[in-house]
Amino acid sequence: MHLDIRTLFFLTSMAALLMSGTMYASIRNNANHIGGMKSWALGIGLQGAGWGLQAFQGYIPHPLGEGIPKTLLLIALAVQYRSLCDFKRVRFPAVLVGGLMVSTIAAFAIFQFIVPSMPGRTIVGSLYAVVLFGMCALALVNDGGATRHPSQAIAGYTFLLCGVVLVFRIAYIVFVSSEMHGLFLPSPMEEVCYLSYYCGVVLISFSYMLMCHEKSSEELGRLATRDSLTECYNRGMIEELLAKELAKAQRHGGALSLLMIDVDHFKQINDHHGHAAGDSALRLVALTAQGSLRLQDALGRYGGEEFLVLLPNTDAAGAMIVAERLRRNIEQLQIKLDSNRFGITVSLGTATALNEAITAEQLTHCADAALYAAKSDGRNRVVQGEIGR
Fold first, then answer.
1. Is the pTM of this model over 0.85?
2. Per DSSP, what are the bridge partners of residue 337?
3. Total H helices, total E strands in the chain
4. The dihedral sign for the CA sequence 308, 311, 316, 319
5. In 3D, which of 29, 28, 25, 6 has the Cα closest to residue 17?
6. 303 phi, psi to nearest 5 deg
7. Burial of 93 (0-12, 13-18, 19+ CB in 10 A)
8. Which of the ends of the chain has fewer CB neighbours closer than 10 A, N or C?
9. In this model, does residue 65 exceed pLDDT 60?
10. Superfamily of the domain at 235-384
11. Is 340 helix (H, G, I), strand (E, B) or coil?
């Protein structure tokens, strides 16, 4: 019993076009779609067109029924790899992929018109696909230690499996039998290969849609907890973390320190240099502060030009050291915006929880009172707060 290859091509084409149409509809209904979705929809659509033309080979004029479908499939793989690069926010090696595609098309032409050979064309196309499948798999599976969702792994390993099937296909032609009777009279190896294409198109496309959904959910979660300007935690999240860290410190008898930071003369920065300069100042303060902290510390924008820093397992003396280091680092900054160039300073108040009865509100109030004292004493300084003062 043999597969009906024309029917399999037609099913592969319909599956690809359906996935492409579904993705384009999703893009139209979602202005904040994930990067790479348009490229993927285009790539899978080109695949659908290519397999569709393959299915009708023999009914449509040459070379439309042979040369163009193969070219569309070559372009589709490159576009899909471009989509994955956009999704992962990595550079797309356009010269490498373009050179590979041109070389493959040239080899196709040689084995079509100069030295006609169906096995030669099959090997060339398979080699191109193996390389692109491998690049797609590497982009998905190798995440440099970052969190990888199951859908991403499924898509990556499916690309890898399709590549392995093609390697066996090449080996079969080279070492077992190069006899090919036609596109629709395939060997068992060719049947396995075409069936893997169909399964790959369906599985990879579903996985890619799940990847986009997972990334959208992550982005929504990030927007719910992060300040859009500075990328540090927003007030709601930093207050939630404060409550958790305070409860942990009270439960285990550890210390928790707070830093309240305020950018000095921030209104004057906005008035004299413009709001864009004020935004740059806030972003730079947040970036510098984050670089001055430990991994277990937390930075959040508390409101306007104020920031809150959580220092777990840090006593009052340790908090003063961190605060003074942070103050000095920010004092050395120079902000350049168009023709404007200016420096910034910050005032800081610290507070440390050592009493089990203290609340998050009391701790914050203590740090805020110390910050007020630092500003009253001339700004660009650190004042240590005292609980109950």
1. no
2. 340
3. 12, 7
4. negative
5. 25
6. 155, 130
7. middle
8. N
9. no
10. Reverse transcriptase/Diguanylate cyclase domain (3.30.70.270)
11. strand
Cα separation, 283 vs 215, in Å, equals 25
Domain ranges for the chain, please list them: 5-225, 235-384
d(CA 104, CA 106): 5
Closest CA to 309 of 345, 257, 262: 257
> What is the three-class DSSP state of 373?
helix
Which residue in this structure is represented by tokens 């413009």? 274
Contact 154, 209 (CB under 8 A): no
CB 308 within 8 A of CB 262: no
pLDDT, tens digit, for every residue of 345-371?
A: 999 999 999 866 789 999 999 999 999
**Token representation of residue 301:** 């924008």
**Which residue shows structure tokens 């996935």?**
19
What confidence tens digit (pLDDT) does each residue in 127-171 have?
A: 999 999 999 999 888 765 455 678 988 999 999 999 999 999 999
Secondary structure (3-state) at 57: strand
Fold of 5-225: Rhopdopsin 7-helix transmembrane proteins (1.20.1070)
At which residue do the structure tokens 């849609």 appear?
Answer: 209
Q: How far apart are the first and last CA of the chain?
A: 89
Q: Which two tokens stand for residue 107?
A: 């080899």
Cis peptide preceding 150, ω within 30 of 0: no
H helix or E strand, kind and range, residue 68:
helix 67-88
Query: Three-state SS for 93?
Result: coil
